Amino acid sequence: MDDERRTATPAGPPSGPPAGPRDPGDAWAVGPDGTKAWGRFGAAGLLVDDGRGRVLLQHRVEWSHHGGTWGIPGGARHQHEDPVTAALRESAEEAGVPEDGIDLRHTAVLDLGFWTYTTVVGRASRPFDPVVADRESLALAWVPVADVPDLPLHPGFGASWPALRATLDRTPHVVVDAANVVGSVPDGWWKDRAGAASRLVARVSALAASGVDAAALDLPSATWWPRWTVVLEGEARGATPVDVTADTRPGLPVVTVEQAPAAGDDAIVAAVQTAVAAGDGPVVVVTADRGLRDRVTAVGADVRGPSWLRELLPD
Known about the structure:
Number of helices: 7
Oligomer: single chain
Strand content: 25-35%
């Protein structure tokens, strides 16, 4: 095996499906034409890369659906379970993936009408070794991206791999000109600039947790979790963000708040330059300031107006 791969193999796991009570979701969904797909409420899996050009794959046990092929850890969603939670739970159960060791990046959804499969794409935030934790794996391995097509892949994963591969290096980053966004609505912000900035940062934090529709970023897939930087200047630097989201799932992006020591525009340009140098992209700046638009596009950013962000922000 390639020296770049690190493999976990079971120490003689029992064969056959696991015994014991099952969730109502652990059943076949049947389409109008008789097509069957596993997961009464749909299914989800986790595609995680290690930031060094490798992805974690599972060699599926023979008795499973499409047994003997390679795919990603995943399985049926439980009743009332969202796809991200399901993918993280399944990957922990099947491969020992630490739930707090994954940074969420985006989701891709296969929708058959009567059934959906959600691929949750993430990056390991720290190194970990996979562990064959149940009966559903013959082996687990960190596989170099270039070697993935050489394996006998699960048909569903094989069909989706080219599109998923194309997104592994994408890291969208949104930089917010807070003064411009706050000033775009005459809601009395001038009476309390720090308070208005606090409310904006809180709403951006809630949006960061829920994710952004791919179409809003001109990206493929379904939902993305960009990196966020909010730049404050002047009196707004006294902002104290209020937590308006109860979503405490690990892996969600943290909103970086930068307090400009002088001109806010200079700090925004510097934030864009740092993001581009780090390989982030697309980098999107939210502003309506024409001079700033010209400056940030010159260093590699796209620009959206304040209304673009306001339409995405939760109430």
